[in-house]
What we know:
The chain is α+β, with helices and mostly antiparallel strands. The chain contains four helices and twelve strands; from the N terminus they run αααββββββββββββα. Strands 1, 2, 3, 4, 9, 10, 11 and 12 form an eight-stranded antiparallel beta sheet that branches. A four-stranded antiparallel beta sheet has the order 7-6-5-8, with no helix packed on it. A hairpin with a 6-residue loop joins strand 5 (about 130-135) and strand 6 (about 140-145).
Amino acid sequence: MDAEAQQTERDRSSHPAVPEEISDTEGAEGRSRFALVGRAADWLPGGRITLTVLFCLFSLLLLTRFVIQPFEIPSGSMEPALRIGDRVLVNKLAYRFGAEPRRGDVVVFDGTGYFGDADYIKRVVGVGGDQVVCCDRQGRIEVNGRLVDESTFLYPGDEPSEVPFDVVVPDGTLFVLGDHRGDSSDSRDHLGSPGGGMIPVDDVIGRADWIAWPLGHWTRLERADGHARVPAGPRITAGTSGRTTADGVHG
Length: 251
């Protein structure tokens, strides 16, 4: 028995198990990339610090081009929510995957050909198919027959509008107003201009979601509740008329 046991042990030791091996291609690729980065750093003045700065700048460029872009507020047309000099962060993905601007959203749009050769920031009051009327006997705006409570964002002392209007918003466009109605050039002022004061949804750059600067004014811009309760209107393809001026937002 002892001899058999010893022979078995010798047999096993004489045929060692073949180790399971895989080619380290990922490691090789990683080392290759690392070497490439090292050569790039050696080539650049300042070495890895310069490379890191360039990478950060490139990432920031992609971020502001496709995701979030800061804009400076140059006028008081959106007071009291947005003051002159405030920097807002605009979500450029908010309407890129099937979603569309909603009543009450604060949006930045390209006003070229409609408001002027600049970007503007306003609040959406009417979307495609809505009938927007101002004003009832108490001076309030109606959208699709529903009175809109604007007390939470309208500039203190301002009327909803000193200019009466009754418009139907065509599909694919927006009717927009500033919160400081007495100091805002908006859809009311361009009813007689090309486009009838309506802003094409395709020209919307994004939704203003945050006030980022100054730090003491940091806050999230919420959708106005008064507009959220407005019922949907019929889908319409025609608009109406009005008057003209301008204020912009700096990107």
